[in-house]
Amino acid sequence: MHVAPAGGTTVQDHVALAEIELCGELIIAASAAHEERLSLVRIDEVLKVAEERDAAAGR
Question: In terms of pTM, does the model score above 0.85?
Answer without folding.
Answer: no
